[in-house]
Amino acid sequence: MHTTPIHINSMKWLHKNLFSSSLNTMLTMAALYLLWIVVPPAIEWSLLEATWVGESRSACEPNSGACWAFVDARIEQFLYGLYPATERWRVNLAFAILFLLFIGLFLAGTIKQLKRSWIVTLILIPYPVIALYLFSGGSFGLVEVETTQWGGLFLTIVIAGVGIVASFPLGILLALARRSEMRAVRSLAIAFIELIRGVPLISVLFMASVMLPLFLPEGVNFDKLLRALIGITLFQSAYMAEVVRGGLQAVPSGQVEAAESLGLGYWSSMRLIVLPQALKLVIPGVVNTFIALFKDTTLVMIIGMFDFLGIVQAATTNPKWLGTAVEGYVFCAAVYWIFCFSMSRYSISVERKLDTGY
Amino acid sequence: MEKNIETIIDITGLNKWFDYFHVLKDINLTVVKGERVVICGPSGSGKSTLIRCINRLEEHQQGKIVVGGVELNDDLKNIEEVRREVGMIFQHFNLFPHLTVLENLMLAPTWVRKISRSEAKDKAMHYLERVKIGEQALKFPGQLSGGQQQRVAIARGLCMEPKIMLFDEPTSALDPEMIKEVLDVMTELAEEGMTMICVTHEMGFAKTVADCMVFMDEGKIVERASPDQFFDNPQNERTQLFLSQIL
Question: What share of chain A is helix, strand, coil (3-state, %, to 5)?
């Protein structure tokens, strides 16, 4: 059988995709030129001319490239903040358990004995309790670590994780409430959503950390991290509610009618019929909100907490490491990007799994 | 066939408005057990609204609807009780697209009747075989033709073992070559003695299965007659006009 040689195929591909008209040829040339002026210097700076280890900024002086020694020297702090070094195994253990549970979740599709719903229940109910105990300790032989010592990537993940897990169901309830036939419920939901969406997250966090204690009676005081978590959760749930509402509106009314005509009540119809379809439709929007939430956690910096970005930023002002701000921010950007991109890829795989051709 | 004369649906003095639009005007209708009623009439005459009132998909403002001895009012318990005993087939099938055919059928028996999953599955397969579609059990609704989907919808309704089946233009959204397969299933059901109320334009079907024809126009029941009389000797001139247009 006759087959076209590869080099002819690739010539065809080039012609079709890059040089099909004079305008396209120009655009291709311009793009190549841009790559030429951007990529080699970036590689040179970040890899070829970079310094990887050293005790201070001066160790990086001989090379013109990035001073990754800064990240290398401070990585423990970036990951755990001020969490005591001898207790960091607790954080690692908690994340290792979570990691194993997620592996289980991925394998649940292939191994029959592993029920996905069991693992989800494990993650949602006993796991947070175990993690909270490991993180803060204070009983059964674990030293107490106050939340003011939590920091770095660890704190970022805690805030984002709690925010995501709590704001999602709350957002669904708010969305259902906003579409409720009961006027009082509907009005309350609308008032809450519009109020929260109308103010910046920074002001919500300020309210939670500065103003709320003023309103509480003397002596009643609860943890600053907890207040920040509540603030972020309420804020994101308002956005989540609107995303979910979009999905609810896209499910044809015939679906509810069919469910009702079979004798299903309101909650069963919502849970079994409407929400599975609505949530599938809004996966891109939901993940969008998750990603925004993940990055918004950096705002806890302004109420004096050192999340990942905050602690990197603080480290760049250390006299030993002056002049490493660029490296710090590039490192931060890369780590945030990895997390956000993973969420995005995961959502695509979920969408594919749920596709039943309608 | 000897009929057990037991009123199963009793509608008296029914009035319904959509905002200011008076859709149903002074409707009185009784249906006895095992009776097959076909409702026809021009579009916008209130046929669909009427049968949707029977399982309270539409709320009525005036009059009384009693289904199987239970009155439909604001009491949610009553509404759910009626809905358990009344199956409904829709013009657009309204199968649940995120569930397989089998899951569509098992859903209500397991969640509403609270029977075990294995029992629900047996029942589902039984009714799927009955509508001659057992081999499609594991497919999703989106993979079936319109006629197959409507037969699945009928099987889904039957899985609840209702006393009454309501059909709201069950063949109107189907391609012509698929209408027959659905009508055949409905005819079989009628022969088995199911109480049925059908809104349909399929006059051939009406002639063969109906015990009683109801003609509606502008929200009123204009004429109620046996099929013979209805088709051969309609009394009302609007009925005559309607029949002359569609036959």
Answer: 75, 0, 25
Distances (CA, A) of A105 to A162, B121, B125, B197, B215: 19, 27, 31, 48, 58
Residues on chain B touching A254 (C-beta within 8 angstroms): 90, 92, 94
- Determine phi and psi for A140, rounding to 5 degrees: 50, 45
Interchain CB contacts (distance < 8 Å): A and B: 69
CB contact under 8 A, B94 and A254: yes
pLDDT digits (tens, 9 = 90+) for B228-242: 999 998 888 999 999
Q: Do B83 and A272 touch (CB under 8 A)?
A: no
Instruction: Give the C-alpha separation, B54 to B162, whole Å.
Output: 13
Predicted confidence pLDDT, tens digits, chain A (358 residues): 556 666 777 888 888 888 888 898 899 999 999 999 999 988 888 888 777 887 877 777 787 878 887 887 788 888 888 888 888 888 888 899 988 888 888 787 777 777 778 888 888 888 888 888 888 877 787 777 777 888 889 999 999 999 999 999 999 999 999 999 899 999 999 999 999 989 999 998 888 887 777 777 766 667 888 888 988 999 999 999 999 999 999 999 999 999 999 999 999 999 999 999 999 999 989 999 999 999 989 998 888 888 899 888 888 888 888 878 888 899 999 999 999 999 999 888 888 888 776 5
Q: Note whether B113 and B131 are within 8 A (CB).
A: no
The phi, psi pair for B220, rounded to 5°, reads -120, 155
Q: Own/partner pairs for A40-46, CB < 8 Å, 24+ apart?
A: A46/A330
Give CA torsion, residues A78, A79, A80, A82, to 10 deg: -10
Per-domain boundaries in chain A: 83-145, 150-358
The tokens 């029949």 sit on which residue? B243
- Residue that has been written with the tokens 């969640």 in this structure: B111
Name the fold adopted by A150-358: MetI-like fold (1.10.3720)
Q: Which amino acid belongs to residue B119?
A: E
CA atoms within 13 A on the CB side of A204: 24
Instruction: Tell me if residue B225 falls in helix, strand or coil.
Output: strand
Q: Which residue of B has its CA nearest to A267?
A: B111
Please give the C-alpha separations between residue B111 and each of A153, B1, B114, in angstroms, as whole numbers. 44, 36, 5
Distance of CA B162 to the CA centre of its chain: 11
Per-residue pLDDT tens for B115-166?
Answer: 999 999 999 999 999 999 889 999 999 999 999 999 999 999 999 999 999 9
Report chain B residues touching chain A, CB-CB < 8 A. Answer: 55, 57, 76, 80, 83-84, 86-88, 90, 92, 94-98, 107-108, 111-112, 140-143, 156-157, 160
CA–CA gap between residue A120 and residue A127 (Å, rounded): 10
Structure token pair of residue A310: 């905050």
Buried b (16+ CB within 10 A) or exposed e, B43-58: eebbbbbbbbbbbbbb
Q: What is the DSSP letter of A150?
A: B
At B59, list the tokens. Answer: 């709320």
Pairing of strands B62-67, B220-225: unpaired
